[in-house]
Amino acid sequence: MATPDSLQHAKIPLAHGSGEIPALGFGTLIPDAVATRQATKSALEVGFRHFDCSERYRNEQAVGDAMQEVFKAGAIARKDVFVTTKLWNNNHRPERVRPAFDASRRRLQIDFVDCYLIHTPFAFQPGDDQEPKDERGQVVYDSGVTLVQTWRALESLVDEGKCGAIGLSNVNLEKLQEIVEAARIKPAVVEVESHPYLPEWDLLDYCQRQGIVLLAFAALGHAMQPRLLDDPVIVAIAERLHKTPAQVALAWAIQRGTALLTTSVKPDRIRENFEVSALPEDAMQEIREGMAKKIRFNAVVESGVPGFIPRDR
Ligand SMILES: NC(=O)c1ccc[n+]([C@@H]2O[C@H](COP(=O)([O-])OP(=O)(O)OC[C@H]3O[C@@H](n4cnc5c(N)ncnc54)[C@H](OP(=O)(O)O)[C@@H]3O)[C@@H](O)[C@H]2O)c1
């Protein structure tokens, strides 16, 4: 777990992989390529050292371009940055895993992937279409492959030395246990939605007992209604400690033992989100006990179809 005075640079050693994952991570789920490149560059420059990518985000090239630009300037080296990317649902068949992995490496312009995740446990019809649909507009699933078979293909990537760690995303406790039990190489990281409105304590407890890092996405609640950053408990703590609500939510996530992902396209917010420092124990308790709402913002766990759930404003 992070020491309280070093949250910005906290790293969690990977028990089932090589290296350490920086606790404070930057997500690259940004629809526009130019904005992706600018945000990635800003995030590297302010100090973020973990970048979360995916073939599904269709912007790995822009992330790779930004990293190359910064690496060439000389102040930051590839070895200082932890890069995660993910296998999408249309590539779950074992023979499709290596080509998908290589295509991500090519777009990201990196030889070694620090962590490779299965983006969701749902296999879609294999092919080039990331969201294959039938004539009724329903997603076409692939019943010809199991998650364990896909996992075996990821294990081979670790064996080949091109990947330091492997993991899962958008799995529940039951699915995770299934893979942990079947795995030769256990998941190093599990990436799920988590924030004070969805703390996932049971999953975190299991992960900690198994030496798995829980990587929390949407750490600020994805700026959706009801807005986590307007929550009275978070706002009161922020005012009392002279921090911003975002800094409170991010510090909470690191101090309770998770790694996290946050995203912004705005340089001032990227800086704000990196400037986290420790919360006192009473604030940690207030957040743990004071959250009246329990909210999942992203429905991807239910069907494998990505998407934050629109709500009335
Ligand atoms: N595995 C998965 O299925 C999955 C699913 C979703 C996300 N993710 C990963 O997790 C990353 C983070 O998720 P997320 O985008 O939901 O993160 P988030 O940090 O919870 O939400 C980002 C939103 O908050 C706003 N924001 C950022 N910093 C702020 C601040 N200091 N004050 C107020 N608003 C702020 C941003 O707006 P501005 O840009 O306008 O600042 C943006 O709209 C993604 O980029 C992706 O890498 C993974």
Report on this structure.
- This protein is of the alpha/beta class and 313 residues long.
- 38% of the residues lie in helices and 13% in strands.
- The protein has 11 helices and 10 strands.
- It has helices at residues 33-46, 60-73, 94-108, 147-159, 173-182, 201-210, 232-241, 245-255, 267-274, 281-290, 300-303; strands at 11-13, 20-22, 24-27, 50-52, 82-87, 115-118, 166-169, 189-193, 213-217, 259-262.
- The strands form 2 sheets. Strands 3-4-5-6-7-8-9-10 form an 8-stranded parallel barrel, surrounded by 4 helices.
- Helix 1 runs parallel beside helix 9.
- The longest helix has 15 residues, at 94-108.
- Bound molecules: NADP nicotinamide-adenine-dinucleotide phosphate (NAP).
- NADP nicotinamide-adenine-dinucleotide phosphate binds next to strand 10 and helix 9.
Question: pLDDT average, as an integer?
Answer: 96
**Structural Rg:** 19 Å
Give the overall shape, derived from the CA principal axes.
globular
User: What count of helical segments does DSSP give?
Assistant: 11
Give the biggest sheet. 8 strands, parallel, barrel
| H/E series | EEEHEHEHEHEHEHEHHEHHH
Oligomerization status of the protein chains: single chain
Write out the strand line-up for the largest beta sheet, numbering strands in chain order: 3-4-5-6-7-8-9-10
Which residues sit in consecutive blocks of at least 5 with pLDDT less than 50? 1-5
Structural class: alpha/beta
Determine the N-to-C terminus distance: 37 Å
The helix content, as a percent range, equals: 25-40%
Query: Strand percentage, roughly?
Result: 5-15%
Bound molecules: NADP nicotinamide-adenine-dinucleotide phosphate
> How many extended strands?
10
